[in-house]
Specification:
The structure holds 2 protein chains of 2 kinds. Chain A is mainly α. Chain A has a single domain, classed as MetI-like (MetI-like fold, Orthogonal Bundle), CATH 1.10.3720.10. Chain A contains 14 helices and no strands. In chain A, helix 2 packs across helix 14, helix 4 packs parallel to helix 8 and helix 11 runs antiparallel to helix 14. Chain A is flat. Chain B is mainly α. Chain B folds into 2 domains: 44 residues, no CATH class; 214 residues, MetI-like fold (Orthogonal Bundle), CATH 1.10.3720. The two termini of chain B are 20 Å apart. In chain B, helix 4 crosses helix 14 and helix 5 packs antiparallel against helix 11. Classes of the chains: A mainly alpha, B mainly alpha. At the A-B interface, helix 1, helix 2, helix 4, helix 5 and helix 6 of A face helix 1, helix 2, helix 5, helix 6 and helix 7 of B.
Amino acid sequence: MSAPAPTTGLVPVPMPVSAPAAARRRRRWRAIQSDAPRVTRRAQSRLGIMLVAPLMLMVTVFLLVPIANAVYYVFVDFNGINPSPPWIGFSNFTELAQDDKVWAAFKNNVIWIVIGTIAPLAVGLLIAMLVWNVQRGNVWYRLAFFIPYVLPQVAVGVVWGWIYEPSRGWLNRALELVGLDVITTGWLGNPDTALYAVLGTAIWVASAFVFIIFLSALRNVDLDLLDASRLDGANAAQRLRYIILPQIMPVFLMVTTITLVGGFSVFDIIFVMTGGGPAGATEVLGTYAYSSAFQLNRISYGTTLAMLITVLAIPFAIWLNRLQRRLSLQGTGA
Amino acid sequence: MTSTAQRDVRQRVRGPGKHVLLIVLSALTLFPLVLTVSTALKTSQDVKVNPFGLFSSFSTENIVTAWTEGSFGDYVLNSFLLAVPSTLLVVVLSTMGGYAFARLPFPGRSMAFYLVVVGLLVPFFTYMIPLYFQLRSMGLLDSLLGVNLVLASTGLSFGTFFMRAFFSDLPTELEQAARIDGASEWQIFRRVMLPLASSGAGALAVFTFLQNWNNLLVPLLYLPGGDYRPLTTGLYLFLGGRSIDIGPLAAGTLITILPVIVLFLVMQKQLTQGLLSGAVKG
C-alpha cells in the first residue's frame, strides 16, 4: 500500500509494480486469443472507452491540468493576483540554486531519507520476524503493531508533542528515571534535536507499515528450506541473510522504494509538529515550498521548489522499480 | 506451506521470553494511544497540574467541551461529508476504469493508463498550488463538491492501478463462457465481472476512506473560509489556537482517531489486503 497511503511524511505512496512473469505471460496469451470476431472487438472498445471516460475526465481536470499549470508557474513570476504574470525563464531555478535555505532544507531531506528509510526497515523487519512464528496472540500483535500507520498524522503529531514536552513529557521523565538527566531537553524546541524528534515519530508510523508488509511476505518463506538450514547448523543471522532475505527480496526493495520516495515528499508530520521550526531546524523542501507559496505569496517560487522534489524523487522510483522487476523475473519473487 | 511443517517450526520456538518482549514492544507502540485516552478523560483540575499522569482522575468534561465549544461535533459530520462521497467516487470510477484497462482493448489504452499512473509518481503538493487557483476560478473553493472531487482525484491513480491488477488476475474462462452464451460486453462487465470484483472494491473502499478521512492538507487549503471543516483540519487549527487547553485538545484528538480505530478493528482484513496488493503484489 501504499498505498498511496496518505501522501504524507514517511507514509508511503504506492508505486506501480511490475507484473510477475507469469501474469505477463498470461496477458500476452490473452492478447493472442483476442483475435475474437471483429464485432466483439468493436463492442469491447466501445465499452472500454465508455468506462474510462469519466475517469479520464477527472484525471485530466484535477491532475493533469494542475500539473501542466505547475510547469507553467515555474517559468513565470506569479504572485497569486496578477492574471498575466511576466515570463522570467529560468530565474526561479537560478534563485533556487543560490538560496541557502534550499540547501539547508535539502540537507534535512537527505537526513530524513537516510534515517527514515533504514530505521523503519530495521524495526519493522525485526518485529515482523518476532511476530511471524508466534502462535498465540498473533492477531493481537498484528493489530497493535500496525495501528500507528492508520492514524491521522495531525493526531499523531499532537500526542507525540506531549511525549516530547520539556518539563512533564514522558520521554524526559523516563530518561530521568534511568539517570540520564543530562540529555533531557525540549525535544521539539531545541534546534539540535527537533529534526530527530520528528523523525522518531515518523519512524513509529513507518515501521508499522513496514511491519505489516514484511509479516505477509514472511508467510511465503519456504519453511522446509529454513528447517533444513537449521539442521545444517545455520545460526539466526545466517538464516536471515541466506534463507529469509533472498526470498523476501522483491518485497524488501518495494518497501525501500516506498519509504525512500516518501522521504522526498515528507510534509504533514513536520508541518503539524514543528511547521519547519525552530529557526528552520526541521525545514524540508516540502514545508519550505508551502511557506513560500502560502505565507510569502511567492507562488511561482514555491511551485518551483515542489517541482524540484518531484524531479529528484522520480528517478529513484523508476530505478528501484526496474530493479524489482528484474528480480521478480529471475523468479526470486513471491 | 503445509500446516504441519509450520507447526513443527512453531513448536520449536521458545515461548515465554519472546512473548514478554513482544508485550513490552506492543505496550510501547500503543503508549501514545493510552496517553490520549488518559488525558482526554481527566478532570480539568487534574489536567492543569498533572496532564500526562496516566488515569489519575475521571471525567467526561473535556469531551463535552471539545464536542460543543470546540465544535468537534460539527467536524465529525463534516468529515463524513468529505470522506464518504469522495470514497464512493474513487471506488466506482476505479472499478470501471480498472476493468477497461485490464480486459477491454481500445485505442489509446496504454497511453491513457500512463496518464492515470502519473498521479502515483507526482506528489500532491507539486500541483496543490496551481490547483488552488484553478478551483478558485472554477468557483469550487469552499465547496463540498470541490473538496470531494479533489479528494477523489488524489485516490484515483492508486484505485485504478489496484482494480486493474485485480481484474487482470481473474480467470478469462468465465468471460468467454458468458460471451458464448450470447452476453453483451456490458452484461459481461455488469453481471459476471462486477460481482467477482466486490472483494477488491471493498478493500479499496476501506483504504480510500481512511486516506480521505485522514487528509489534512486538501481541506485546509481548499476550504479557506472554514465551512465544512473536518476533524483533521479542525484539530490542526485547535492545536495552533489554544495549545494550552490540553484537556479539550486531548479530547479532540480522541474524537478524531476513534472512528479510524473502530474502522480499523472491524475492517482490518480488507485494509491489509488493499495495502498488500497495492504495494507488493507483482
